[in-house]
Amino acid sequence: MRVVMFGYQTWGHRTLQALLDSEHDVVLVVTHPKSEHAYEKIWSDSVADLAEEHGVPVLIRNRPDDDELFARLKEAAPDIIVANNWRTWIPPRIFGLPRHGTLNVHDSLLPKYAGFSPLIWALINGEREVGVTAHMMNDELDAGDIVRQEAVQVGPADTATDLFHKTVDLITPVTIGALDLIATGQTEFTKQDRSQASFFHKRAAEDIRIDWSWPAEDLERLVRAQSEPYPSAFTFHRGKRLEVLAAVVSQGRYGGTPGRVFYREGDGVVIVAGADARTGRNHGLAVTRVRTEEGAELPATEYFTSMGGYLTGRP
């Protein structure tokens, strides 16, 4: 089939590479300009560079809503559009242009975790598996019929970076497998159960600020979700920002006020956590590694030279 590809960052790059390696013919690529947004500088392999290396025409757009783009698409005469990590709305006159419509590839197990940063949100929420879904695009974001979907398990120590590497390897089989089905003429696919749908926003600084009223189990997953190269989860100690790079749920149960720097346990320093921590039934978060506002990275047992005082959400 003749394919036009819409995509950005490493997800789009991996999708384009899969298409270039397949029997399909990539006739045009549309991608976003480079961005300074923290999350868009991560996994930033260039779709434009890859296309140009293979002699594929490239258009750079923030939004695909101008007449010149539409004219170029009609001229390219695609049988299908394939999109992955396209960051803005694609209007119906574009996604409905090819005879086979538009196949969108999304890194979640739809209908759950539509929208942005699905792996991070899924990890924070304690999901046991994540994956990649190829679905037909319609008027509602990430809501079209599912053509192919594959899942991988979330391990007990997995970080968001681990899950990225697990799921990015699913892009080729999911995308090409879906295209092969469509190329055979199949048009009936699995409808999404919209009662199970969830939609998540882009992540920002407020989303990585530690709230010590959360249970320790949730905070431990937040720290893993904000693994390098993502911005680290942070709190404040004595008015200065402190990043939490590694932590585990404490073995013991610790009561008191959330955020209290309380007790050395193993290789960590336990911080009281949970809205009902006063009951003494909660585990704490045993912080094991931190980074200071000045950029020094060190074990928590070296940073916290004495117990007492509080970690807070604001300076």
Task: Walk me through the structure.
24% of the residues lie in helices and 28% in strands. It is built from nine helices and 16 strands. A hairpin with a 2-residue loop joins strand 12 and strand 13. The longest helix has 13 residues. With 315 residues, the protein is α/β, with parallel strands linked by helices. The chain has a seven-stranded mixed β-sheet with strand order 3-2-1-4-5-7-8, with helices on both faces. Strands 10, 11, 12, 13, 14, 15 and 16 form a seven-stranded antiparallel β-sheet that branches. The mean pLDDT is 96. The protein is elongated and about 70 Å long. The chain starts with a strand and ends with a strand. Helix 1 packs parallel to helix 2, helix 1 crosses helix 7 and helix 5 runs antiparallel to helix 8.
Radius of gyration: 23 Å
Percent of sequence in beta strands: 25-35%
Share of helical residues: 10-25%
The side-by-side strand order for the widest beta sheet comes to: 3-2-1-4-5-7-8
- Structural class of the helix and strand makeup? alpha/beta
Total number of strands: 16
Approximate shape: elongated
Q: Low-confidence spans: pLDDT under 50, at least 5 residues?
A: none
Q: Report mean pLDDT, rounded to a whole number.
A: 96
Q: Give the CA-CA distance, first to last residue.
A: 57 Å
What is the count of DSSP helices, taking H or I runs of 4+ residues?
Answer: 9
Largest sheet: 7 strands, mixed
What is the N-to-C succession of helices and strands?
Answer: EHEHEHEHEEHEEHHEHEEEEEEHE
